Amino acid sequence: MPEYTISTADGDAWPALGAGLAAVLQPRSRQCEILQDDALLRLRTEGTDVEASWELAGTWYVYVEGAPSLEAADQMVNEMAAQLGEATGKQAVHHRITD
Questions:
Q1: Tally of domains in the chain
Q2: Which range marks the domain in which residue 89 is found?
Q3: DSSP string across 44-90
């Protein structure tokens, strides 16, 4: 199960997103079933389970389980990071921390 972090490029904290994380983090290019959408976002898309949570100041953690490939998981998190950047006006960077 690959795990990722998403943070701001400048190291600043993310602005508060408020309720409804799916509106910002759900990959727009995919049909998703939202399983939980409060302080934790859990969704399922095309047989892949994704969980995004705010763990440390300035850092989102994303866990991807069941992706058809590591590249598919990378693409999904890349899209989530880009959408987070668009929604907040911050440049987002993401890193895979485990395969």
A1: 1
A2: 3-98
A3: EETTEEEEEEEEETTEEEEEEES-SSHHHHHHHHHHHHHHHHHHHTS
Tens-of-pLDDT digits for all 99 residues of the chain?
Answer: 899 999 999 988 888 776 678 999 999 999 999 999 988 899 999 999 999 998 777 799 999 999 999 999 999 999 999 999 999 899 999 999 988
Instruction: Say which amino acid occupies 51.
Output: E
Structure tokens at 71: 């590249």
Tokens representing residue 27 in the block? 């990959």
Assign residue 7 the CATH number of its domain.
Answer: 3.30.310
pTM comes to: 0.92
